[in-house]
């Protein structure tokens, strides 16, 4: 029985356990106890570890995304926000608002419209990833301040995109949830850094990312200790050009099967066309989505970004009524 293992020995045992497919959680630094009675690395049995102090849980995991995989938390993850809103529970949570924060009047009007229709989050970009460097790049800090003010006034939670590491600290006081956009899904340095903060993250699927790549990106955030991760299907690029992207509805049940993380649908970027958004929103809920991210603008024809895919407020309100009929059919509320 070994009781005075060195740090090096402990590291090597833990590394070996991870290598052969275990996930080790430590509640204290007393991993020495793992060594007691289990002999040399390679001889352990699953049950041995559970008996020792300092080990909270040992789970056999064989998928490449050990923390994002369903077996890590079979019951599913529920992300709870400070006002009690839960994503991943019975309720389908809708996040709605304009693509970009454009002005005080625009964001306050949008907020009251989406709230009246039943949204729980207000979305709006302050830092915008635009295909052209000459397009509007977002209001930056002024936009964040408006978002916080309107969030506090209406009680809506605020979600906004973080594009680079330096923006994390800037955004922390202003947002309730970080959005990681499609273009940054494999910005591994950014993923690592948001893994270190204690604020929920919505990770959007990359434009050409497989589901496995999305889950591996989530793994980066989870492995930093941030377990409040939600995923989002927002359409992928295919050979089809009629729609801006091809909304992969099947990704929703696939991710439910493979992962414990909540999955949302974004029919706005998924189609790029306002006329197709309601159908894909309804399909997402029917397919088991835990929430939706939908672009809604008080005056879409005047929007500085993504106007063509932004719903008019009345359209959004009608869609919410339809979703209230669909959700109960799949055991959810809205
Ligand atoms: C957005 O939500 O406005 C956005 C830029 O989304 P995506 O990263 O999915 O393109
Ligand atoms: Mn957009």
Strand order of the largest sheet: 5-6-7-8-9-10-11-12
Strand content: 5-15%
Count of helical regions: 12
Kindly report how far apart the N and C termini lie.
56 Å
Ligand identities: phosphoenolpyruvate, manganese (II) ion
Tell me briefly what this model is.
This protein has 334 residues and is of the alpha/beta class. The chain is 35% helix and 15% strand.
Give a structural overview.
By secondary structure, the protein is α/β, with parallel strands linked by helices. It contains 12 helices and 12 strands. It has helices at residues 7-19, 32-35, 46-50, 104-117, 141-154, 165-171, 188-194, 211-223, 251-258, 267-271, 277-286, 313-329, and strands at 22-26, 55-60, 79-80, 86-87, 93-97, 121-123, 157-161, 177-180, 201-204, 229-233, 263-265, 291-295. The strands form 3 sheets. Strands 5-6-7-8-9-10-11-12 form an 8-stranded parallel β-barrel, surrounded by 5 helices. A two-stranded antiparallel sheet has the order 1-2. The longest helix is centred in the C-terminal third of the chain and has 17 residues, at 313-329. It starts with 6 loop residues before the first helix and ends in a 5-residue tail after the last helix. The structure holds phosphoenolpyruvate and manganese (II) ion (MN). The site of phosphoenolpyruvate (PEP) has 9 residues, from loops.
């Amino acid at each position: 029985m070994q009781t005075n293992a060195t740090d090096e020995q402990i590291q090597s045992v833990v590394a070996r356990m991870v290598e052969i497919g275990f996930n080790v959680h430590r509640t204290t630094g007393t991993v020495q106890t793992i060594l007691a009675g289990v002999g040399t690395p390679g001889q352990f049995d699953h049950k041995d570890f559970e008996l020792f102090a300092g080990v909270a849980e040992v789970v056999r995991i064989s998928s490449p995304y050990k923390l994002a995989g369903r077996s890590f938390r079979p019951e599913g993850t529920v992300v709870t926000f400070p006002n009690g809103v839960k994503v991943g529970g019975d309720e389908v949570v809708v996040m709605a608002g304009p693509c970009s924060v454009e002005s005080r009047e625009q964001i306050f009007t949008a907020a009251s419209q989406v709230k009246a229709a039943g949204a729980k989050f207000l979305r709006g970009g302050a830092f915008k990833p635009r295909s052209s460097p000459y397009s509007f790049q977002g209001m930056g800090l002024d936009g964040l301040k408006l978002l916080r003010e309107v969030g506090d006034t209406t009680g809506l939670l605020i979600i906004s995109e973080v594009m680079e590491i330096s923006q994390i600290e800037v955004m922390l006081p202003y947002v309730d949830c970080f959005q990681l956009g499609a273009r940054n899904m494999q910005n591994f340095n950014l993923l690592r850094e948001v893994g270190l903060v204690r604020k929920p993250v919505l990770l959007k699927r990359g434009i050409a990312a497989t589901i496995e790549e999305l889950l591996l990106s989530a793994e980066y955030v989870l492995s930093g200790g941030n377990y409040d991760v939600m995923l989002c299907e927002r359409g992928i690029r295919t050979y089809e050009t009629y729609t801006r992207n091809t909304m992969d509805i099947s990704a929703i049940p696939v991710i439910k099967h493979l992962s414990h993380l909540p999955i949302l649908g974004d029919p706005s970027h998924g189609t790029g066309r306002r006329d197709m958004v309601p159908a894909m929103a309804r399909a997402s809920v029917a397919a088991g989505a835990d929430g939706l991210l939908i672009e809604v603008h008080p005056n879409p024809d005047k929007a500085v970004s993504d106007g063509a895919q932004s719903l008019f407020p009345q359209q959004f309100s009608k869609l919410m009524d339809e979703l209230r009929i669909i959700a109960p059919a799949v055991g959810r509320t809205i």
